[in-house]
Design brief:
The complex is a heterodimer of chains A (596) and B (233).
Chain A (H helix, E strand, L loop, with lengths): L1 E10 L3 H13 L2 E5 L15 E2 L10 H11 L6 H20 L14 E8 L6 E6 L5 H15 L3 E4 L1 E9 L2 E9 L5 E11 L20 H8 L4 E2 L4 E8 L9 H4 L3 E3 L7 H4 L9 H13 L10 E4 L2 H11 L13 H7 L1 H11 L8 E10 L3 E2 L5 E3 L6 E7 L4 E2 L11 H22 L12 H11 L7 H15 L6 H18 L13 H25 L17 H4 L1 E8 L2 E8 L13
Parallel strand pairs in A: 1-2, 1-9, 2-6, 9-17, 15-18
Antiparallel strand pairs in A: 3-5, 4-5, 7-8, 8-9, 10-19, 11-14, 12-13, 13-14, 16-17, 19-20
Helix pairs in contact in A: 1-4, 1-12, 2-3, 3-12, 5-16, 14-15, 14-16, 15-16
Chain B lengths: L1 E8 L9 E8 L6 H12 L18 E4 L2 E4 L5 H4 L2 E5 L6 E3 L2 E2 L2 H8 L20 H5 L18 H5 L5 H12 L7 H8 L13 H5 L6 H14 L4
Parallel strand pairs in B: 1-5
Antiparallel strand pairs in B: 1-2, 3-4, 3-5, 6-7
Helix pairs in contact in B: 3-6, 6-7, 6-9
Classes of the chains: A alpha/beta (596), B alpha+beta (233).
The complex binds flavin-adenine dinucleotide, iron/sulfur cluster and FE2/S2 (inorganic) cluster.
FE2/S2 (inorganic) cluster (FES) binds next to loops of chain B.
């Protein structure tokens, strides 16, 4: 076993981890540990844009962005954190630009912006251009730019090291344990501060836009160490995933004028969100799609709908809506403009569907996309472990793994990339500050024992169950019963099923006895994480007897602020989920009915 | 339909030398080759080692040789490559296990070309302005996902691993033609080296291999031209 010592250790090399690294390394010895080469992180898959009220093309301001985010969160977001993020947004976007990020440009040379769901002009209620973009590969450009700056600043990387445990002593951070993929060796990283930036866990569900690596390692590791998970019942289903594959088609398509159509050729969103129509919040659109399909209005009665961005159709509806360009001219688009603004989307459709979006509609269905819940933190990214927000010294979290909570019950598009850079930076600064004022905690005795026991169990199962079967059954039940729409009975069934799968999982056996790149061992360990997260999600969802944001129940169709305007906290104790709650932070926005 | 796969296997810990294993799997014409590998790993042989993450051609994890051509396994469908497949690791980098190669030499070349933005000392309060035309000038090379398919399809790189390779040049190009960047001359000097752009003999394998459809050979050509016309002393 090898030992390393750094003041700050960052787990994850995506947008949040790299931003944290750039800042932490200014004030403390820092290492980034990542199970993937950093440039393979899922931030690279983000397409549409990063939200900031630059007002480059039309009037906009941080206050509107704040209100839209609070409203989008269905009032579950913590308003102090949301204010902080939206206010910081223009400045961090300029910072990214100064790092060289190649944003698309307006004619006057400023950063180009496009409309996105739920982002509005608060006076008119109409969509506002707030999403700063680099074609339809904004996340790719953020990830590349941050990685490039890390090379420039000589950040230490441990690439393809899989973190499997958090070490603590005296109730504070002491480091992490990681498995080096290339050799199979365990490494102990002794640290004063640990930042989790491990991304999401969409692989719990059958249809998802998420990478194979999205297995919720950060939340699972901390749950096993007695840290709760917050608001896990709130998982976003993005309206437009490619039918059956789940690959994401950015909301930017609708931002450019694309329209959702049902089997009757009707633009059904007019009925559900008369003002912003196809650009309503994601929870609203996914639910509308579900209802259309349930009513038999899917395409040919099947469980998908069309997303149509063919220029004639776009122009037809743009005229009906009276949509104009920022300079006041009527909005008229062309095949060239669409090709130029959405090259990757067009490429995905060619490759995977044989469909040309400039002449044909795309078959889409809601796809599991984004974890609003995660490791609870305060707005300084410090991990907090109870209903009174008690800080766990030296442990931080940022990015999709964290629940600050700026997204509440439903995240607005473009707010995750923003969250990564704002809170990634914050985590880097805070962790370095903490490290400067703290000593190393002693390492616990035999620091790798806890994970060794976990791996031994995986190696010594009876082999009567296949991991892949268990994964499949978990994904199906979670998609069917803890998905876009939920009812008591279905969720109860899901909870029982996941518990059964947890039991059956004990009989799984890792066949690969090799050390080098034993990806089977790690994939199966990741499945144990997914099962834990599925259970916590289903139990948290079952308990919440209301509909709010992404948690929509047929049996409790209304939001209930009197009883449920509170965050869920879930602990995993001896394999059982225990629930608690904590209040939402409110500054000046009183909960109102949400209409789009 | 049934697909027959012949897959390169090598575990340095246990095998004296590489060999090939054969698998037959049921597939749909629209399945990705990656889907077949996943099926094999899940149900036939858990020891098969390869990298993958995004599964839709944007993370650059799974470049491999499929029927002799470098591809991303997640971006080629059975209907594109047929029902008899030979799958091997990309060439020119040491095999670590099965389809996994050591990417460190590849990333070292990448890091050698100043692959980051060097801005001016004084930054404006807001964004630096750049016209859409200036932005378009280097658009193509910003798409690179560092998958390595180009460099490991290049005979010049196979012949001499010291050649920085097309991927590094693509990433240098991205900054050399960025109107905001201040380190253009330094990069051109690096690529003017004996292991720089002149190792490229315009064979076009790289352009054919690139899953992001970057005009790799053209980018290399533009850098050559920039070196020829710049004053580098
Ligand atoms: C297809 C798609 C499109 C999107 N588009 C947008 C958009 O347009 N706008 C927007 O705002 N948001 C968008 N999002 C959401 C946003 O991209 C993600 O939420 C965000 O990028 C997550 O960043 P992160 O830094 O938290 O995690 P990631 O970038 O995923 O990084 C996680 C890192 O953690 C590492 N890691 C994980 N587990 C371990 C472990 N056990 N040990 C060591 N390392 C580990 C990984 O290697 C990786 O480096 C999109 C998401 C998807 C899937
Ligand atoms: S240029 Fe293309 S083939 Fe080469 S590394 Fe970049 S994306 Fe891969
Ligand atoms: S798995 Fe990401 S490019 Fe293939």
């Amino acid at each position: 076993m090898k030992h390393h010592q750094y003041e700050v250790v960052i787990v994850g090399g995506g947008g949040a981890g790299l931003m944290a690294a750039l800042y932490a390394s200014k004030g403390a010895s820092t290492a980034v540990i990542s199970k993937l080469y950093p440039t393979r992180s899922h931030t690279g898959a983000a397409q549409g844009g990063v939200g900031a009220a630059l007002g480059n093309a039309e009037e906009d301001n941080a206050e509107w962005h704040t209100y839209d985010t609070v409203k989008g969160s269905d009032y579950l977001g913590d308003q102090d954190s949301i204010e902080f993020m939206c206010k910081a947004a223009p400045e961090v976007v300029y910072e990214l630009e100064h790092m060289g990020l190649p944003f698309s440009r307006n004619e006057d040379g400023t950063i180009a912006q496009r409309p996105f769901g739920g982002h509005t002009n608060n006076n008119t209620g109409k969509p506002v251009t707030r999403a700063c973009y680099a074609a339809d590969r904004t996340g790719h450009m953020i990830l590349q730019t941050l990685y490039q700056q890390c090379i420039k600043n000589k950040v230490n990387f441990y690439d393809e090291y899989h973190v499997v445990d958090l070490l603590m002593s005296n109730g504070a951070a002491a480091g992490v344990v990681a498995l080096e993929l290339a050799t199979g060796e365990l490494h102990v990283f002794h640290a004063k501060a640990v930042i989790f930036a491990t991304g999401g866990h969409g692989r719990v569900w059958e249809i998802t836009s998420n990478a194979y690596a999205y297995t919720g390692d950060g939340v699972a590791i901390t749950l096993r160490r007695g840290i709760p998970a917050e608001d896990m019942e709130f998982f976003q289903f993005h309206p437009t995933g490619i039918y059956r594959m789940g690959i994401l088609i950015t909301e930017g398509v609708r931002g450019e004028g694309g329209v959702l159509l049902n089997g009757d050729g009707e633009r059904f969103m007019e009925r559900y969100a008369p003002t912003v129509k196809d650009l309503a919040s994601r929870d609203v659109v996914s639910r509308a799609m579900y209802l259309e399909m349930k009513a038999g209005r899917g395409i040919n009665g099947k469980r998908y709908l069309y997303l149509d961005v063919t220029p004639d159709l776009v122009n037809h509806y743009a005229t009906l809506d009276g949509r104009t360009r920022p300079d006041g001219r009527p909005y008229v688009t062309s095949a060239e403009e669409i090709l130029g603004k959405l090259p990757d989307i067009i490429d995905f459709c060619h490759t995977y569907l044989g469909v040309d979006p400039v002449t044909q509609p795309m078959p889409v269905q809601p796809t599991a996309h984004y974890a609003m819940g995660g490791i609870p933190t305060n707005m300084r990214t410090e991990v907090v472990i109870d209903a009174k927000n008690k800080v766990l010294p030296g442990v931080y979290a940022a990015g999709e793994v964290a629940c600050v909570s700026v997204h509440g019950a439903n995240r607005l598009g473009t707010n995750s990339l923003l969250d990564l850079v704002v809170f990634g930076r914050e985590a880097g600064v805070r962790a370095a500050e903490f490290a400067q004022g703290a000593d190393f905690q002693p390492l616990p005795e035999n620091p790798a024992d806890f994970v060794r026991a976990q791996f031994d169990a995986l190696r010594n199962g009876s082999g009567s169950e296949k991991a892949a079967d268990i994964a499949k059954e978990m994904k199906e039940i979670m998609f069917d019963h803890v998905g876009v729409f939920r009812v008591e009975e279905g969720m109860q069934q899901a909870v029982e099923k996941i518990r059964e799968l947890q039991e059956r999982f004990k009989n799984v056996r890792v066949a690969d006895e090799g050390k080098l790149y034993n990806t089977e061992l790690l994939n199966i360990w990741e499945l144990s994480n997914l099962l834990d997260l599925a259970e916590v999600t289903a139990v948290s969802a079952l308990a919440r007897k209301e509909s709010r944001g992404a948690h929509a129940r047929d049996d409790y169709p209304d939001r209930d602020d009197r009883k449920w305007l509170k965050h869920t906290l879930a602990w995993l104790e001896d394999g059982k989920v225990k629930l608690g709650y904590k209040p939402v932070v409110k500054t000046k926005y009183e909960p109102k009915k949400r209409v789009y | 339909m049934q697909v027959k796969l012949t897959i390169f296997r090598y575990d340095p810990e246990n095998d004296k030398k590489p060999h090939f294993d054969k698998f037959t799997v049921e597939a749909e014409p629209t399945d990705r080759v990656l889907d077949l590998l996943e099926y094999i790993k899940d149900y036939k042989d858990g020891t098969l080692a390869y990298r993958r993450s995004c599964a839709h051609g944007v993370c650059g994890s799974d470049a491999m040789r499929i029927n002799g051509v470098n591809r991303l396994a997640c971006k080629v469908l059975v209907q594109d490559v047929g029902t008899t497949l030979k799958v091997e690791p990309i060439l020119g980098l040491p095999v670590q296990r099965d389809l996994i190669v050591d990417m460190e030499p590849f990333f070292d070349h990448y890091k050698s070309v100043i692959p980051y933005f060097v801005g001016s000392e004084e930054m404006p309060q807001k964004e630096q302005l750049q016209s859409p035309e200036d932005r378009e000038r280097f658009d193509d090379t910003t798409k690179c996902i560092l998958c390595g398919a180009c460099t490991t399809s290049c005979p010049s790189f196979w012949a001499n691993g010291n050649y920085v390779g097309p991927a590094a040049i693509v990433n240098a190009h991205r900054f050399i033609f960025d109107s905001r960047d201040q380190a253009v001359v330094e990069r051109l000097k690096i690529l003017n080296d004996q292991f720089g752009v002149y190792r490229c003999h315009t064979i076009f394998n790289c352009t054919d291999a690139c899953p992001r459809e970057i005009q790799v050979t053209q980018a290399v050509g533009e850098v050559k031209k920039a070196i020829a016309t710049a004053r580098l002393d």
